[in-house]
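FORM 7B: Structural annotation worksheet

SECTION A. Query
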Amino acid sequence: MESLANIFWLGVKELRSLRSDKVLVLFVIYAFTASIYTQARGTSSEVYNASIGFVDEDGSALSRKLFQAFYPPRFQKPVLIRSDEVDEAMDSGRLMFVVEIPPRYEQDLRAGRQAEVLVVVDATAMLQASIGASYIQNIISGQVAEFLSRSDPNFRYPSRLVVRKAFNPNGDTSWFNSIVAMINQVTLLTTVLTGAALIREREHGTIEHLLVMPLTAFEIAAAKIWSNALVILAAVWASLLIVIRGVLQVPIAGSPWLFLGGVILYLFFATALGVFLGTVARTMAQFALLIILILIVLQLLSGGSTPVESQPEALQRITYLLPSRHFVAFSQSIIYRGAGIGAVWPDFLVVTLVGAGFLAFSLQRFRRSIAVSR
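SECTION B. Predicted structure
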């Protein structure tokens, strides 16, 4: 009972110390609010408000139909230009796409002859260029097929592809980016807060005050773990409800409480990583460099930025031992697919086992570093 009391009051001391560090508090608030919003909205892989021009050398009903098929929010209102204005419009960056409809386009299609539509793309914006070109191709193909099916009774679709998107019907990348951003912030902030708390004690000389008190290494480390984990847990809960579901309008298909339980399990690993790096680094500068080296690798291999299946096979085997991969997996399953405990318990189990094992190792290393300091 006395040990639990020591852990509690030491944790309260950590919370008071964190509250007095205004910069760190503002950083935590920013990381779980504005940072998530900007990553969700500012890194979209979709085409929005793209400028497009038309060179209509046919002047037919079909060409006018194609011209009217492009509208916001994917594209700006199309503008009609002459063929000799294409180079100037592309060179100046005024237009990202130009569609050139050749003469007798509708007549050739009605006669069963092959006709080509030229699409000029500004490929300096590579992502939007490739996706926008696909949008234009699909729109033109759909409009031409619809036009011919209404005007030619002998027209038949060779095949029809029906696509139904599950879990994200509109393909809104902000749904995906917001959750991945929050997951990355959980790993980053938990590790930073826990590790920085240890290094701050050493740099400020307060670790010596703790060493002369009747405290064990476990009590000192456990107090830092629960206090910093509590801060992250509260930030995750507020971010999930206010920023992700409230501001970004991302629907939460599964149980938020189940997701929060998974976050608690993952915090065992994240806090252990912070304790471990706090014992390895001697200064805050060394700690920052280690954070960059380790957390970037964890984020890249977690499957949040790129699918695990696209990684080399050897790396895929390694990622099975990374709690960050399973954290991403069960987070997406719960939030997007509405998965229950029956679907995510294997990921919960791996996160718990690896996190508990690494926490025991980190506490043992911290105990040794305390023993050396004594």
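SECTION C. Observations
Strands lie at 52-56, 79-80, 97-101, 118-121. The first helix runs from residue 2 to 20.

SECTION D. Sign-off
Analyst initials: ____
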